[in-house]
Amino acid sequence: MLRKKYYINPETLRYERVKLTQRQIFRYVGLFSFGLISLAILMRYGFERIFPTPRQIIYQQENSTLRSEYAALNFELQEVESQLVDLRNRDDRFYRAILSLEPVPNSIRSAGTGGSVRDQHLMVIREPGMILDVSHRLDKISNKVRIQSTSLENVYEKALNTQHFLACKPSINPISPADPYWLTSIYGYRNDPFSGKRTAHHGIDMAGPVGLDIHCTGAGTVIISRLSGHGYGKEVVVDHGFGYTSRYAHLHDIYVEKGQKLKRGEVLGTLGSTGRSTGPHLHYEIRKDGRAVNPTYFFYENLSSQEYTLLASQASFPEGPYQSVAMSQK
Q: Do residues 38 and 101 both lie within one domain?
């Protein structure tokens, strides 16, 4: 409260009360209000320092929950990174090893990613450490996933090409193990049965009764189906791709036409003795990039007669036997 002030009036020689001007009153009221407000602010600040407000309690609970969720997210990220490491090892040591692909270099797998630009908005946070850590780990995982995805795409493409190559490569005997046949001439040099001179024999000769089914030894396209003028008689030549061709000569019947697509095991004709032949037999040869190779190196000797029959039946024409385009000797 303001003390009352008095002064001696020189005219009346009496004590009279000092009257404040309106300006002074405003000043005193202003000072008093400022002091009161300051005191209230100080008391509130001191109270909040000692006792948390309901809002602060909510924030603390939310902060504790976020930290728990961060710990759980951190554990999940570790699990994902562990799975990526396992996938990388299987990719390099198993998938790529089987397909003869070189492992992905560590310099590529460990390549860093940018992130300074995308992390700039996080720097305004008071304590961005945890968020930045998660952001960087997610960047690394995303980069590893991208690299691994590209690697698996390459492996898948290589596997498809390899599967196609294995389906096309000549790799079975042209005559079923269940049929009676015998080898009469091997690959290499021999005495020509007509001239008696030593000449190169670019295939193998397999004798048997006329009419035995002759099977295509690998998927491919017929490029020759005719009566040859070079001593092969009725012959079929199949282009298997990848530089491989196979020839089936001295046939009795031809069941395929030029341009026709064949599967491994499909019957393309029957054993005969047409052309320059001393008896019923099949002349079978394989060429790689135009050069003759030994056909016996391409046989799967472990195919049983039942397995061979199943293979041939799966490759047969859906409309039935091979009569529609037969070129008969009769």
A: no
Domain count, the chain: 3
Q: What is the domain extent for residue 291?
A: 182-314
Q: What percent of the chain has pLDDT over 70?
A: 79
Other beta carbons within 10 Å of 70: 14
Residue (of 220, 215, 213, 214) closest to 167 by Cα position: 220
Q: Are residues 199 and 295 in the same domain?
A: yes
H, E, C per residue of 237-294: EEEEECCEEEEEEEEEEECCCCCCEECCCCEEEEEECCCCCCCCEEEEEEEECCEEEC
- CB burial string 190-228: b at 16+ within 10 A, e below: eeeeeeeeeeebbbbbbbbeeebbbbbbbbbebeebeeb
pLDDT bin (cut points 50, 70, 90) of residue 234 is: very high
Answer yes or no: is 323 within a domain.
no
CA distance 25 to 30: 8
| Cβ contacts of 187 within 8 Å, gap of 6 or more | 201, 202, 203, 204, 285, 292, 294, 295, 296
Alpha-helical runs (H) found in the chain? 22-50, 54-90, 96-98, 106-109, 129-168, 305-314
**In this structure, how many other beta carbons lie within 10 angstroms of the beta carbon of residue 167?**
15
Whether residue 97 is contained in a domain is answered as: yes
Contact 16, 7 (CB under 8 A): yes
pTM score above 0.85: no
